[in-house]
Design a protein that fits this description.
Distance between the termini: 47 Å
Radius of gyration: 18 Å
Helix content: 55-70%
Structural class: mainly alpha
Number of strands: 0
Largest sheet: none
Length: about 180
């Protein structure tokens, strides 16, 4: 019988959503994010940012998420399962780093070579659609990892390796179809 304690996962999901809402609310209050357009009924759902979080904000946010995962985890297996919820971001970072190392780029140099950046900038897919796609993938992978958690380490690691291989194929296909060195 499958037994999963969803209370901790639910709390982390709520905390993550609450944090995003707070950042959005404070950003609007401080004037960092655009005010809603009165002509559009959905503009408050997807605000346009005036400030890019950049590396410093990303590192801080990553540290907060990592701290939550370490704190919530009761075992190494739970740690891996919780980290699986951020799998698309880890996979995107690893594939981008492999490509940049292959091309001889300095990793400290700014770039726009992540898959989500290519989809949004080169393919002109609206940012919100790319974000929803990543979120959906994140949710599917995270839930599937939780569902196979009771089978053991090998099942979880095998699933993550399979997902990473699939992500690499999609990433390289998109990059090849783009035709650039990006």
């Amino acid at each position: 019988m499958l037994k999963i304690d969803f209370s901790l996962y639910f709390i982390s999901f709520i905390l993550g959503g609450a944090g995003a809402w707070l950042i959005s609310s404070w950003g609007k209050t401080l004037g960092l994010l655009d005010r809603p357009n009165k002509r559009s009924s959905h503009s408050s759902l997807v605000p346009k940012a005036r400030v890019f979080m950049g590396d410093v904000g990303s590192i801080l946010l990553g540290f907060v998420f990592a701290g939550m995962v370490v704190y919530i985890s009761k075992s190494f297996l739970e740690f891996v399962c919780l980290a699986g919820f951020l799998f698309p971001f880890y996979a995107d970072e690893l594939t981008t780093m492999m490509i940049r190392i292959r091309d001889g780029e300095k990793l400290s140099k700014p770039h726009r070579r992540h898959l989500y950046q290519l989809l949004a900038n080169e393919y002109q897919i609206p940012h919100w659609k790319v974000s929803v796609g990543y979120g959906f993938a994140q949710l599917l992978i995270g839930i599937s990892i939780l569902l196979i958690k009771d089978i053991g380490y090998m099942a979880v690691i095998s699933a993550l390796v399979f997902y990473f291989g699939f992500f690499m194929m999609v990433s390289f296909f998109v990059r090849k179809k783009n035709g650039s060195k990006r």
